Amino acid sequence: GQMVRSTVEAGGDQETRYPSSQYQDKRREETGAVGEFKVGAEYFLRSALHARKMVVTWENALNGVVIPAGEKVVLTSIVRHIVKFTNQGKEYTFVYHLAKTPNHVMLSKFFTADDPNPVIAALPNDIRVSGISKSRAIVGMTKWQVLYAMGVPPIVDKKKTYNLTLDMILSSNIWIYKEGFADSYYVWFTNDKVARVKD
To answer: What does pTM read for this prediction?
Structure first.
């Protein structure tokens, strides 16, 4: 039983190669651990997530309810590309379909063992109040600050991010978020800082 997946999604992105095989990830799922991530362990959100009816998808559409960066979560289940976690007494399902990304690579874009709250608290007041707390990018914010505010974008430089690592995303200068079914929110960077925003 091998699962056959299309080598391209609509748009035709090239397949990214990763060091971990599907077999290795499957074995880790059976033991309740995937790379550095373990079921039952507590982590922090390293970037904002947006949930609709308790479900988060890799597209991270901005019209969902914001779960802010820095929130504590507990991973309760990791099965292929469906991950469940709890936050403040609520359980969420994180769906990451269509990706060939190994689970630990995918999870590392959203979860971390390192608490980002001291870094966020030390940011300038206008960044925290006008940007992060409103889940919006403002001119002058760094890429990491936009991740804290809005989360991982579904598209960067015309590439869908479901198979991209966090480093690949951070090296891109055009981030496109989904506002809802059809609307988009664009963020352009120059020298790793927001230069322009369009919604």
So the answer is: 0.81
